[in-house]
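Sample entry was shown:

___
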Amino acid sequence: MEIVVIGAGWHGGEIYSYLLDLSAEDPSLHLAGFIDEQKPRGRCRGIEVLGRFEDLDALLKRNPGEIYRYITAVGNNGTRRMFVDKITRIASANLQAWSLIHSKSTIGHDVEIGCGTCLAPGSIVTTHVRIGSHCILNVKASVSHDCVLGDFVNINPGATVAGNVRIGEGAFIGAGATVIDKVAIGEWSIIGAGAVVVRDVPPHVTVVGVPARVIKRHES
């Protein structure tokens, strides 16, 4: 299986590390390289940068019989969505989104995980959970029973999401934050690191503190 990683920055380094772990367990997994708009082709921090999006398009056209899988390695949710939109416009039949499920993550019964999502080592998803496409559950993030996460959600390291929580598209849950049960997080909202969310959060806001309170409203 040929894997292309979109983004060769710091999160790309983490994805590379996870791929090394997975390829040691499954030798059929092969990293084709990274696509990054900001870096020149060649070796960068020990990884192979294939070039920009047009270089990815050229690679796919050179190898029409090879199926490539891709995963985004960008922590910013809006940028990640923009990159997925760019890849969608390439519209190649031999490129498909791939979900990275680390072997040291824990996934319970009746869990759905959307395409292009990453579950880092130590992440936990309990039961009856729906996770959208192109999400990130980072190291030691936990999502409890009956939660629903929209597309492009990012749950940062050590964050805890209790049961029956609804998280809208593009929401960002900061490191070490806690979201209590039965609350809703609006789309594209930001939960600050260490915040404790005890009531619903509207869309397009930033909340911080214990208990979390709105400190900023964003443009839609």
About this structure: The first strand starts at residue 2 and ends at 6. The radius of gyration is 18 Å.
